[in-house]
């Protein structure tokens, strides 16, 4: 990863620091952190899932409602976007040290998502429901922006077009709309001791079926901690809310993002 070079307006806002490149996560942006701040850098005009401007707006809306970083600055150049924010203390739930306490991780993730999903739907200005996300998925397929080699094991050998066609064929008839994170996997939830410090990578946050989060959290727990903890997560969140068919559908949808 190339060294971080900040635009002049951000250099004036951020103190001089040693910036460390962050390699975990798959947001599509370059990420650097200092002791107190994080800077994300993303090329403009590429096949990105969301822009850093969209993430900035979501961070501003979520601030004070659920724990997230605060925005320090946003700048745009002819080629790149830059988003600076405070660094949350703690470790991603995907960190090996967090895995030493799998029950704690599972319990806190279920609790954090219940709190996020309980936010008033009428106050959220961001729409990530199926009409929006399927349109974005179709655009990504047409642009050749989908990494077919990264599909889950059960879909290795599928084409992106085949995944999209299956999404259209099996689309649920209704959506259980809540305020969602949009990419609720373990690297995007910061753990600090006995509690969740906050959510990061919220560029896809918005109104969507709760299973958009539950499906990715379940898959991430299964991969990192094992199937028993993935099932425990659903128990703790509340089985009354869980539709197994929707869990499978939203895992399928995520293949195109």
UniProtKB/TrEMBL annotation:
Mg(2+) binds at residues 188, 201. InterPro entries: AGP_Transferase (IPR051678), Aminoglycoside_PTrfase (IPR002575), Kan/Strep_kinase (IPR024165), Kinase-like_dom_sf (IPR011009). Residues 20-241 form the Aminoglycoside phosphotransferase domain. Keywords: Antibiotic resistance, ATP-binding, Kinase, Magnesium, Metal-binding, Nucleotide-binding, Transferase. Its EC number is 2.7.1.95. It is an enzyme of class 2 (transferase). GO terms for biological process: response to antibiotic. The active site is at residue 183. GO terms for molecular function: ATP binding; kanamycin kinase activity; metal ion binding. Belongs to the aminoglycoside phosphotransferase family. PANTHER family: 3'-PHOSPHOTRANSFERASE, PUTATIVE-RELATED, AMINOGLYCOSIDE PHOSPHOTRANSFERASE-RELATED-RELATED. This is Aminoglycoside 3'-phosphotransferase.
């Amino acid at each position: 990863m190339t060294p971080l070079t900040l635009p002049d307006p951000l250099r004036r806002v951020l103190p001089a620091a040693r910036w460390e490149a962050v390699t975990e996560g798959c947001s599509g942006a370059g990420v650097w952190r200092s002791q107190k701040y994080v800077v994300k850098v993303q090329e403009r005009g590429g096949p990105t899932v969301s822009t850093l401007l969209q993430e900035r707006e979501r961070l501003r809306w979520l601030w004070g409602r659920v724990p997230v970083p605060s925005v320090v600055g946003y700048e745009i150049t002819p080629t790149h976007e830059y988003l600076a924010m405070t660094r949350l203390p703690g470790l991603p739930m995907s960190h090996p040290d967090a895995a030493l306490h799998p029950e704690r991780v599972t319990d806190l993730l279920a609790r954090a998502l219940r709190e996020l999903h309980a936010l008033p739907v009428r106050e959220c200005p961001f729409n990530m429901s199926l009409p929006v996300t399927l349109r974005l998925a179709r655009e990504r397929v047409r642009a050749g922006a989908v990494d077919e080699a990264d599909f889950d094991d059960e879909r290795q050998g599928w084409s992106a077009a085949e995944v999209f066609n299956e999404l259209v064929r099996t689309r649920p008839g209704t959506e259980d709309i809540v305020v969602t994170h949009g990419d609720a996997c373990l690297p995007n939830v910061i753990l600090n001791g006995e509690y969740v410090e906050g959510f990061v990578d919220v560029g896809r946050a918005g109104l969507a079926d709760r299973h958009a989060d539950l499906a990715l959290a379940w898959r991430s727990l299964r991969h990192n901690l094992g199937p028993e903890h993935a099932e425990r997560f659903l128990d703790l969140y509340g089985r009354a809310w869980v539709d197994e068919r929707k869990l499978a559908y939203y895992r399928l949808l995520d293949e195109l993002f």
